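U., I forgot to send this yesterday:
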Amino acid sequence: MKFVSLKNGVEMPMLGFGTYLAKDGSETTNAVKEALKVGYRHIDCAKIYQNEKSVGKGIKESKVSREEIFLVSKVWNTDQGYDSTKKAFKESLKKLGTDYLDLYLIHWPKPLSSETWKAMEELYDEGKVKAIGVSNFTEQQLRDLMKDCNIMPMINQIEFSPRLTQNELCSFCKNNNIQVEAWSPLMQGKVFEIELLQELAQKYNKTIAQIVLRWNVQMDVVTIPKSVTPERIAQNFDIFDFEISKDDMHRICLLNVGYRTGPDPNNFDF
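Result:
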Protein backbone atom coordinates (compact mmCIF):
# COMPACT_ATOMS: atom_id res chain seq x y z
CA MET A 1 0.00 0.00 0.00
CA LYS A 2 1.12 3.55 -0.76
CA PHE A 3 0.14 6.52 1.37
CA VAL A 4 -0.08 10.25 0.82
CA SER A 5 0.48 12.79 3.58
CA LEU A 6 -2.27 15.39 3.75
CA LYS A 7 -1.35 18.99 4.54
CA ASN A 8 -1.89 18.38 8.27
CA GLY A 9 0.35 15.31 8.26
CA VAL A 10 -2.42 12.70 8.31
CA GLU A 11 -1.47 9.62 6.29
CA MET A 12 -4.14 8.55 3.78
CA PRO A 13 -3.99 5.26 1.84
CA MET A 14 -3.89 6.03 -1.89
CA LEU A 15 -6.09 3.06 -2.70
CA GLY A 16 -9.47 2.87 -1.02
CA PHE A 17 -12.63 0.82 -1.20
CA GLY A 18 -15.75 2.55 -2.49
CA THR A 19 -19.28 1.62 -1.37
CA TYR A 20 -21.46 3.66 -3.76
CA LEU A 21 -24.44 1.59 -5.01
CA ALA A 22 -23.54 -1.31 -2.71
CA LYS A 23 -26.86 -2.57 -1.37
CA ASP A 24 -27.55 -2.05 2.30
CA GLY A 25 -27.36 -5.26 4.29
CA SER A 26 -25.23 -8.34 3.72
CA GLU A 27 -23.93 -7.22 0.30
CA THR A 28 -22.20 -4.17 1.75
CA THR A 29 -21.19 -5.85 5.02
CA ASN A 30 -19.60 -8.80 3.23
CA ALA A 31 -17.88 -6.58 0.65
CA VAL A 32 -16.32 -4.42 3.38
CA LYS A 33 -15.17 -7.51 5.29
CA GLU A 34 -13.65 -8.95 2.10
CA ALA A 35 -11.90 -5.68 1.30
CA LEU A 36 -10.36 -5.47 4.77
CA LYS A 37 -9.35 -9.14 4.54
CA VAL A 38 -7.55 -8.48 1.24
CA GLY A 39 -5.68 -5.53 2.73
CA TYR A 40 -7.65 -2.35 2.06
CA ARG A 41 -7.46 0.09 4.97
CA HIS A 42 -9.38 3.00 3.44
CA ILE A 43 -13.19 2.74 3.29
CA ASP A 44 -15.24 5.43 1.56
CA CYS A 45 -18.95 5.87 2.25
CA ALA A 46 -21.60 8.59 2.48
CA LYS A 47 -24.96 9.22 4.10
CA ILE A 48 -26.72 9.28 0.72
CA TYR A 49 -25.49 5.75 -0.08
CA GLN A 50 -27.83 4.58 2.72
CA ASN A 51 -25.47 1.79 3.78
CA GLU A 52 -23.39 3.33 6.59
CA LYS A 53 -24.81 0.93 9.15
CA SER A 54 -23.78 -2.03 6.99
CA VAL A 55 -20.33 -0.53 6.46
CA GLY A 56 -19.93 -0.20 10.22
CA LYS A 57 -21.05 -3.78 10.72
CA GLY A 58 -18.52 -4.99 8.16
CA ILE A 59 -15.74 -3.13 9.94
CA LYS A 60 -16.75 -4.55 13.30
CA GLU A 61 -17.05 -8.12 12.03
CA SER A 62 -13.71 -7.91 10.21
CA LYS A 63 -11.84 -7.78 13.53
CA VAL A 64 -9.47 -5.19 12.01
CA SER A 65 -8.89 -2.51 14.64
CA ARG A 66 -10.62 0.81 14.00
CA GLU A 67 -7.30 2.63 14.34
CA GLU A 68 -5.95 0.82 11.27
CA ILE A 69 -8.81 1.99 9.06
CA PHE A 70 -9.09 5.33 7.26
CA LEU A 71 -12.87 5.85 7.33
CA VAL A 72 -14.58 8.48 5.19
CA SER A 73 -18.13 9.79 5.00
CA LYS A 74 -19.86 12.82 3.50
CA VAL A 75 -22.55 15.33 4.40
CA TRP A 76 -25.41 15.25 1.90
CA ASN A 77 -26.93 18.29 0.18
CA THR A 78 -30.14 18.36 2.24
CA ASP A 79 -28.08 18.38 5.46
CA GLN A 80 -25.92 21.35 4.53
CA GLY A 81 -25.84 24.29 6.93
CA TYR A 82 -24.16 24.75 10.32
CA ASP A 83 -26.56 22.99 12.71
CA SER A 84 -27.74 20.31 10.28
CA THR A 85 -24.16 19.36 9.40
CA LYS A 86 -23.35 18.80 13.08
CA LYS A 87 -26.48 16.65 13.38
CA ALA A 88 -25.72 14.68 10.21
CA PHE A 89 -22.18 14.01 11.40
CA LYS A 90 -23.44 12.56 14.69
CA GLU A 91 -25.91 10.37 12.82
CA SER A 92 -23.15 9.03 10.55
CA LEU A 93 -20.95 8.24 13.55
CA LYS A 94 -23.79 6.34 15.18
CA LYS A 95 -24.57 4.31 12.07
CA LEU A 96 -20.91 3.52 11.47
CA GLY A 97 -20.39 2.53 15.11
CA THR A 98 -17.42 4.81 15.66
CA ASP A 99 -16.64 7.93 17.69
CA TYR A 100 -14.57 9.69 15.01
CA LEU A 101 -14.00 9.85 11.24
CA ASP A 102 -10.69 10.06 9.47
CA LEU A 103 -12.16 12.26 6.75
CA TYR A 104 -15.46 14.12 6.34
CA LEU A 105 -16.40 15.71 3.04
CA ILE A 106 -18.99 18.13 1.68
CA HIS A 107 -20.55 15.86 -0.96
CA TRP A 108 -21.55 18.55 -3.48
CA PRO A 109 -21.10 22.33 -3.64
CA LYS A 110 -24.25 24.15 -2.54
CA PRO A 111 -25.09 27.74 -1.49
CA LEU A 112 -24.85 26.70 2.17
CA SER A 113 -21.38 25.18 1.80
CA SER A 114 -19.65 28.01 3.70
CA GLU A 115 -21.87 27.41 6.74
CA THR A 116 -21.35 23.68 6.40
CA TRP A 117 -17.60 24.25 6.32
CA LYS A 118 -17.69 26.25 9.56
CA ALA A 119 -19.32 23.28 11.27
CA MET A 120 -16.73 20.93 9.80
CA GLU A 121 -13.90 23.17 10.97
CA GLU A 122 -15.28 22.94 14.51
CA LEU A 123 -15.59 19.14 14.27
CA TYR A 124 -11.94 19.09 13.17
CA ASP A 125 -10.82 21.41 15.97
CA GLU A 126 -12.67 19.22 18.47
CA GLY A 127 -10.79 16.14 17.24
CA LYS A 128 -13.92 14.37 16.00
CA VAL A 129 -12.54 14.13 12.47
CA LYS A 130 -8.87 13.91 11.49
CA ALA A 131 -9.23 15.67 8.12
CA ILE A 132 -11.89 17.64 6.26
CA GLY A 133 -12.43 18.27 2.60
CA VAL A 134 -14.87 18.60 -0.25
CA SER A 135 -16.15 16.59 -3.18
CA ASN A 136 -17.08 17.72 -6.69
CA PHE A 137 -15.84 21.29 -6.24
CA THR A 138 -14.61 23.22 -9.28
CA GLU A 139 -11.74 25.69 -9.05
CA GLN A 140 -14.14 28.62 -8.67
CA GLN A 141 -16.19 26.81 -6.04
CA LEU A 142 -12.99 26.08 -4.13
CA ARG A 143 -11.93 29.73 -4.39
CA ASP A 144 -15.31 30.83 -3.04
CA LEU A 145 -15.06 28.45 -0.09
CA MET A 146 -11.47 29.45 0.65
CA LYS A 147 -12.26 33.17 0.85
CA ASP A 148 -13.29 33.07 4.49
CA CYS A 149 -12.29 29.62 5.75
CA ASN A 150 -9.95 29.13 8.69
CA ILE A 151 -8.88 25.66 7.59
CA MET A 152 -8.17 24.93 3.94
CA PRO A 153 -9.81 21.86 2.38
CA MET A 154 -7.40 18.94 2.51
CA ILE A 155 -9.13 16.81 -0.14
CA ASN A 156 -11.16 17.37 -3.29
CA GLN A 157 -12.83 14.14 -4.37
CA ILE A 158 -13.78 14.52 -8.02
CA GLU A 159 -14.71 12.41 -11.00
CA PHE A 160 -11.35 11.47 -12.52
CA SER A 161 -10.68 8.88 -15.21
CA PRO A 162 -8.69 8.40 -18.40
CA ARG A 163 -11.47 10.25 -20.27
CA LEU A 164 -11.72 13.03 -17.64
CA THR A 165 -8.39 14.16 -16.21
CA GLN A 166 -9.49 17.71 -15.24
CA ASN A 167 -5.94 19.00 -15.66
CA GLU A 168 -6.54 22.63 -14.67
CA LEU A 169 -8.49 21.71 -11.55
CA CYS A 170 -5.85 19.17 -10.53
CA SER A 171 -3.10 21.78 -10.99
CA PHE A 172 -5.03 24.26 -8.84
CA CYS A 173 -5.47 21.65 -6.12
CA LYS A 174 -1.80 20.72 -6.23
CA ASN A 175 -0.72 24.36 -6.00
CA ASN A 176 -2.94 24.79 -2.95
CA ASN A 177 -1.88 21.54 -1.28
CA ILE A 178 -5.32 19.96 -1.76
CA GLN A 179 -5.09 16.22 -2.42
CA VAL A 180 -7.11 15.05 -5.43
CA GLU A 181 -9.12 11.87 -5.03
CA ALA A 182 -10.90 10.03 -7.85
CA TRP A 183 -14.42 8.70 -7.80
CA SER A 184 -15.68 6.51 -10.64
CA PRO A 185 -12.09 5.77 -11.77
CA LEU A 186 -13.37 2.90 -13.93
CA MET A 187 -16.04 5.07 -15.59
CA GLN A 188 -18.84 2.75 -14.45
CA GLY A 189 -17.24 0.00 -16.54
CA LYS A 190 -16.69 2.04 -19.68
CA VAL A 191 -12.89 1.82 -19.35
CA PHE A 192 -13.14 -1.78 -20.53
CA GLU A 193 -14.20 -0.55 -23.99
CA ILE A 194 -11.04 1.54 -24.58
CA GLU A 195 -8.64 -0.15 -27.02
CA LEU A 196 -5.47 1.41 -25.60
CA LEU A 197 -6.27 0.07 -22.14
CA GLN A 198 -6.97 -3.36 -23.62
CA GLU A 199 -3.54 -3.21 -25.28
CA LEU A 200 -1.78 -2.12 -22.08
CA ALA A 201 -3.51 -4.81 -20.05
CA GLN A 202 -1.95 -7.41 -22.33
CA LYS A 203 1.43 -5.68 -22.30
CA TYR A 204 1.67 -5.59 -18.48
CA ASN A 205 -0.22 -8.85 -17.93
CA LYS A 206 -2.75 -7.04 -15.76
CA THR A 207 -6.50 -6.38 -15.93
CA ILE A 208 -7.77 -3.15 -17.46
CA ALA A 209 -8.99 -2.09 -14.02
CA GLN A 210 -5.52 -2.67 -12.57
CA ILE A 211 -3.97 -0.55 -15.32
CA VAL A 212 -6.35 2.34 -14.63
CA LEU A 213 -5.97 2.17 -10.85
CA ARG A 214 -2.18 2.01 -11.12
CA TRP A 215 -2.31 5.01 -13.48
CA ASN A 216 -4.32 6.89 -10.82
CA VAL A 217 -1.72 6.15 -8.15
CA GLN A 218 1.17 7.16 -10.41
CA MET A 219 -0.70 10.39 -11.16
CA ASP A 220 -0.64 11.00 -7.36
CA VAL A 221 -4.42 10.69 -7.25
CA VAL A 222 -6.11 8.75 -4.45
CA THR A 223 -8.60 6.30 -5.95
CA ILE A 224 -11.59 4.36 -4.59
CA PRO A 225 -12.82 1.56 -6.90
CA LYS A 226 -16.02 -0.22 -5.91
CA SER A 227 -16.92 -3.88 -6.32
CA VAL A 228 -18.91 -6.41 -4.33
CA THR A 229 -17.32 -9.40 -6.08
CA PRO A 230 -14.51 -10.99 -4.00
CA GLU A 231 -12.34 -11.75 -7.05
CA ARG A 232 -12.52 -8.17 -8.34
CA ILE A 233 -12.04 -6.71 -4.87
CA ALA A 234 -8.76 -8.66 -4.68
CA GLN A 235 -7.73 -7.81 -8.24
CA ASN A 236 -8.29 -4.09 -7.72
CA PHE A 237 -5.99 -4.19 -4.71
CA ASP A 238 -3.20 -5.97 -6.61
CA ILE A 239 -1.60 -2.91 -8.24
CA PHE A 240 1.60 -2.39 -6.28
CA ASP A 241 3.83 -4.97 -7.96
CA PHE A 242 4.30 -3.18 -11.30
CA GLU A 243 4.85 0.28 -12.75
CA ILE A 244 3.50 1.86 -15.94
CA SER A 245 6.19 3.48 -18.08
CA LYS A 246 6.27 7.25 -18.61
CA ASP A 247 5.37 6.82 -22.28
CA ASP A 248 2.36 4.67 -21.47
CA MET A 249 1.29 7.04 -18.70
CA HIS A 250 1.31 9.83 -21.27
CA ARG A 251 -0.68 7.73 -23.75
CA ILE A 252 -3.36 7.15 -21.12
CA CYS A 253 -3.49 10.87 -20.32
CA LEU A 254 -4.09 11.60 -24.01
CA LEU A 255 -7.38 9.70 -23.76
CA ASN A 256 -8.85 12.72 -21.96
CA VAL A 257 -11.85 14.20 -23.80
CA GLY A 258 -13.67 15.75 -20.84
CA TYR A 259 -16.20 12.92 -20.72
CA ARG A 260 -18.29 12.63 -17.54
CA THR A 261 -20.20 9.59 -16.37
CA GLY A 262 -21.71 11.57 -13.49
CA PRO A 263 -23.25 15.02 -12.94
CA ASP A 264 -21.49 18.28 -13.75
CA PRO A 265 -20.71 20.27 -10.55
CA ASN A 266 -21.70 23.43 -12.41
CA ASN A 267 -25.08 22.07 -13.44
CA PHE A 268 -26.89 19.64 -11.17
CA ASP A 269 -30.36 19.76 -9.63
CA PHE A 270 -30.25 17.68 -6.45
